[in-house]
């Protein structure tokens, strides 16, 4: 059982974390850093509370926003988070230090595909993907062998602001093509023989895949 002193320290930690998360949201908005939307992160946290994963792999750290949110949802969880952008990696490292989570959130500065290619006997029971959207299929293909039966994969931005369903159409060809690529990925994911997948219209679209 926690002591009164530990209880008070935990309360202060929660306040510090809430303030930092607000600052991170503001920073992301000002600097166009893609982070998961608020309703999406609430779904992500609830899945972690229910699933109680021991080892989470996050592909796409950005500034550490989702990693800190996931760690706050389950105090027993260990998170390995991969980021390719050096500037964002250093910002994330500082943010993780500010909430005293360096013992639970392990940041790696590397291309996610290269990191996944180097895996040997690691095991994860939860994966969160929020990185280069054109690489989603590659990430999933490479991570599946390292997932236990019953593991969850959560993927953000699978509706991509309406470009996937073509609810939004404009003359920005790059976004239209990316929407088409994500659509092909979604169809591949739904049909994958090792996964049971649900797509929910939360945030920017979230896919939840269960490893059979």
Automatic annotation (TrEMBL):
<dbReference type="InterPro" id="IPR050362">
    <property type="entry name" value="Cation-dep_OMT"/>
</dbReference>
<dbReference type="GO" id="GO:0008168">
    <property type="term" value="F:methyltransferase activity"/>
</dbReference>
<feature type="binding site">
    <location>
        <position position="130"/>
    </location>
    <ligand>
        <name>S-adenosyl-L-methionine</name>
    </ligand>
</feature>
<keyword id="KW-0460">Magnesium</keyword>
<protein>
    <recommendedName>
        <fullName>tRNA 5-hydroxyuridine methyltransferase</fullName>
        <ecNumber>2.1.1.-</ecNumber>
    </recommendedName>
</protein>
<dbReference type="GO" id="GO:0032259">
    <property type="term" value="P:methylation"/>
</dbReference>
<keyword id="KW-0819">tRNA processing</keyword>
<keyword id="KW-0479">Metal-binding</keyword>
<keyword id="KW-0489">Methyltransferase</keyword>
<keyword id="KW-0949">S-adenosyl-L-methionine</keyword>
<comment type="similarity">
    <text>Belongs to the class I-like SAM-binding methyltransferase superfamily. Cation-dependent O-methyltransferase family.</text>
</comment>
<comment type="subunit">
    <text>Homodimer.</text>
</comment>
<dbReference type="InterPro" id="IPR029063">
    <property type="entry name" value="SAM-dependent_MTases_sf"/>
</dbReference>
<feature type="binding site">
    <location>
        <position position="157"/>
    </location>
    <ligand>
        <name>Mg(2+)</name>
    </ligand>
</feature>
<comment type="function">
    <text>Catalyzes the methylation of 5-hydroxyuridine (ho5U) to form 5-methoxyuridine (mo5U) at position 34 in tRNAs.</text>
</comment>
<feature type="binding site">
    <location>
        <position position="83"/>
    </location>
    <ligand>
        <name>S-adenosyl-L-methionine</name>
    </ligand>
</feature>
<feature type="binding site">
    <location>
        <position position="66"/>
    </location>
    <ligand>
        <name>S-adenosyl-L-methionine</name>
    </ligand>
</feature>
<feature type="binding site">
    <location>
        <position position="156"/>
    </location>
    <ligand>
        <name>Mg(2+)</name>
    </ligand>
</feature>
<dbReference type="InterPro" id="IPR043675">
    <property type="entry name" value="TrmR_methyltr"/>
</dbReference>
<keyword id="KW-0808">Transferase</keyword>
<dbReference type="InterPro" id="IPR002935">
    <property type="entry name" value="SAM_O-MeTrfase"/>
</dbReference>
<dbReference type="Pfam" id="PF01596">
    <property type="entry name" value="Methyltransf_3"/>
</dbReference>
<feature type="binding site">
    <location>
        <position position="36"/>
    </location>
    <ligand>
        <name>S-adenosyl-L-methionine</name>
    </ligand>
</feature>
<feature type="binding site">
    <location>
        <begin position="111"/>
        <end position="112"/>
    </location>
    <ligand>
        <name>S-adenosyl-L-methionine</name>
    </ligand>
</feature>
<feature type="binding site">
    <location>
        <position position="130"/>
    </location>
    <ligand>
        <name>Mg(2+)</name>
    </ligand>
</feature>
């Amino acid at each position: 059982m926690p002591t009164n002193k530990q209880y008070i320290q935990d309360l202060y930690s929660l306040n510090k974390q809430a303030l930092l998360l607000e600052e991170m949201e503001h920073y992301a908005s000002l600097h166009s850093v893609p982070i998961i939307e608020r309703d999406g992160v609430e779904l992500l946290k609830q899945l972690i509370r229910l699933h109680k994963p021991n080892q989470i792999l996050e592909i796409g750290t950005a500034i550490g926003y989702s990693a800190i949110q996931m760690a706050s949802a389950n105090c027993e969880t260990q998170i390995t988070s991969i980021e390719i952008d050096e500037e964002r990696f250093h910002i994330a490292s500082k943010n993780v230090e500010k909430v005293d989570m360096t013992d639970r959130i392990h940041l790696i500065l590397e291309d996610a595909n290269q990191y996944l290619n180097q895996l040997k006997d690691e095991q994860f029971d939860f994966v969160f993907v929020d990185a280069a959207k054109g690489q989603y299929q590659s990430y999933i293909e490479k991570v599946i062998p390292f997932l236990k039966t019953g593991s969850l994969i959560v993927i953000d931005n699978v509706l991509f602001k309406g470009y996937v369903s073509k609810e939004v159409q404009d003359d920005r060809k790059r976004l239209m093509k990316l929407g088409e690529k994500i659509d092909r990925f979604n169809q591949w994911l739904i049909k994958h023989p090792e996964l049971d997948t649900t797509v929910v219209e939360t945030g920017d679209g979230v896919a939840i895949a269960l490893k059979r």
